[in-house]
Specification:
heterodimer, A: 296 residues, 2 domains, 77% helix, B: 367 residues, OB fold (Dihydrolipoamide Acetyltransferase, E2P), five-stranded antiparallel β-sheet, 10 helices, 26% helix
Chain lengths: 296, 367
Amino acid sequence: MAEVAEDTAAHLGVFVPPNEPRTPIVTVTETWPVRALLIGISVGFLALFVVLPIASVFVEAFAKGLGTYLAKLKDPDALAAIRLTLTTAAIAVPLNVVFGVAAAWLIAKYRFPGKTLLVTLIDLPFSISPVVSGLIYVLMFGGRGVLGPWLEDHDISIIFATPGIILATIFITFPFVAREVLPLMQEQGNDEEEAALTLGASGWRIFFQVTLPKIKWGVLYGVILCNARAMGEFGAVSVVSGHIRGRTNTIPLQVEILYNEYDTVGAFALASLLMLLAFATLVAKKVIESRQVHHR
Amino acid sequence: MNLSVKNITKRFTVKGTPAIFDASFTATSGGITTLLGPSGSGKTTLLRVISGLETADEGRVLFDDRDVTRLPVRQRGVGFVFQAFALFNHMTVRRNIGFALEVRGMSEAERAKRVDELLALVQLEGYGDRYPLQLSGGQRQRVGFARALACKPEILLLDEPFGALDTRVRAELREWLIQLHQNTPLTTILVTHDQEEALELSQQIVVMDHGRVIQTGKPSEIYDHPQTPFVASFVGTANVFRVKVETQRATIGSVSVSVPAGVPDGTEVQAIVRPHNVKLAKDTDSGPTATNGFTAGGADHTGRSLGTITRVTGLGAYVKMQIALTSNDSVAVQLPRAEADSMNVAVGDRVIVDLADAKVFVEDYSI
C-alpha cells in the first residue's frame, strides 16, 4: 500500500521522504531541456559574475609565485595596514557588542518615550552613504570642524589618524549586533528574566545567567558580521584616513593605493586576505545558524 | 501568612481605563484564593502587583502587617509560577530548581540535598539531569512549582499555571496541586479564567471584571448567591432573561417572578436562574387545553409556565434539556439522571416549568 502511495506521489511530482514526518518537499518536474537551460543559466551567471572574479583575485595574487606573494604581504606598509585593520576591528567590535546588546536590551525590555526614534537611529548607519558618514566626522573633528580648534590646541589628532578611523568604523558597524540581538530578545520575551527576578537574582546575574545564554548565538552572529564589515569598510574610513602610507591605511585603502600604482600582485595579495576573511565569515555564519536551530 | 490587597489601582496608560481599579481583598493564611475573571479583567496584573513585578499606582499590598507595596520583587520572597513555565532552558532541571538557592549562596552539598527533596515533592526523581525541553508540559510545570518552592516562600503566586496544558494533564495537575497544598498549606493566590478550576481548587474566590473586584466569597457563596448578573453567568451556567418590570413583577415569557420592593415599573432588570434550579413536572394532560390551574399560554403568579422540550442531551449523571416556553423564550434545564429517567422525558413532551428560583437583578446595582 505504502509503495503504491509513494508511486502516485512521485507521478504527481511530490517527493515523499521515506519515514520522515516532514512536510513533503515539492519538486517541479520539468522536461530535461528546460532543466538543462535553467541550470545552465544559473551556473553560467554565478561563474561569470562570482566565481571567475574571485578566482582571478587569487590568480593575480599568485601570478609571480608564492615567494612574491609572501614578500608583498611582508612589505612594511602592508604589515602596517594589516596591523591597523586588526587594531580597528579589535576596538570597534567589542564596543559595538556592548552598545548593541545594551541598546537591544533597553528597547526590548523597557517602555520609554523616544523608543521609536532610538530604533530608527540604530538603522541610520545602514541608510547613510559611507562617504557621508566619514564626512560627518571630518566636520566634527577636522581642522575646520566644530571641535577642530580645541583639539588642535590640546594636540589631539583624530582626523587623518587612528582614532578617526576607529570612530568611523564604530559608526558604520554599529547596527550589526543590535539588529541581530533585538529581534531575538523581542521574540523570547521577558518571562525567564521575571522568573529569575522572583527567585531573587540581581540584574547582573539575570543578564549573565539567563539573558546572555539565550542570545549568545545571535550576539556571535552579529560579531562576525560586524567584524567582516569593520575590516572591509572603505568609504567612511577613506574620508577620515588621509591615506598616510604605513600609518593610516587599512587593508582596503592599501589595496586601492597599490592598485592605482599598478602593483597588481601587491594589491591582490592583500585583497586575498579580505577574501579569506569573507570565506571564514560565511563558514562561521553557517555553523552558527545550524547551532541556533538546534538550540531553540 | 495573611495577604491583603487594599485599594489597588494600576494604569498602563495615562488616559483610558485603568487595568485595575480600586481592588481590595484579603487572602487568609494557608488557603487558596483564586482571582477569577475573563481575559482582560486585570487578574494577572493584580497578581503581578502582589509579586512586585508591577508596581501599583495607588493602594497597598500587605503581607500580614508588613507593607510591601514599595518592596522590590527579589525582597518579597514570593514563589511565582508562570503560565508558559518560564524555565531556564539552557540549565538542567536540577539547576533550574536550585537557582534561587544558588542566588542565596547556599553551599553545593546543601543545595543538592534540597533539590533532591523538591524533585521528590514534584515526583520527578530521576529527571534532574534532563533539560526542560526534554520534558512534557506537565513535567515542566512541576519543575516550575519546585523552582518556586525552593526557598520556602510564604506566599505562592500561580499565574494560570495549567493554562498551557491539555485537558487531561490539567486535571491531573489540579489533583496534584490539591495534594501538594494539603501537605504544605501555603497562602496561595491562583489566577485563572476557568471557573471549574476556581470552584474546585479554592477556599475563596475573588471574581474580577474590567479591572474591578466584583465579588469575594467562598466558592459556594459565589455560586449560590451571585451578587451581579456577571458573576451569575460567569461562574457556572445560567439562563439570563432581560425583562421590564410591570406591577412589581418581572415576566419571563409567560412566567412571572417577584421583584425586590422599591423597583419602579418600567425598569429593565435581568432575571437569572441556573439550569439545575429549574423545577420540572410532566404535564399529565396532553390535551390542547391546559390543566393544573394554567390557562393556555398564560402565567400564574407562582412562577410556573407550560413549555415543550425541544432538545435532550446528556450522558452521565445529568441530563440537559432545552425547553421552549409558550412565549418563544428558551430555558436550559438540568436534571439528575434518575429524575429524568423516572419522568421519562423526550423531545416534544409538554412540561410545567417552575422558575420560582429565578433571581432578579436590577441593572443599577450591577457594575
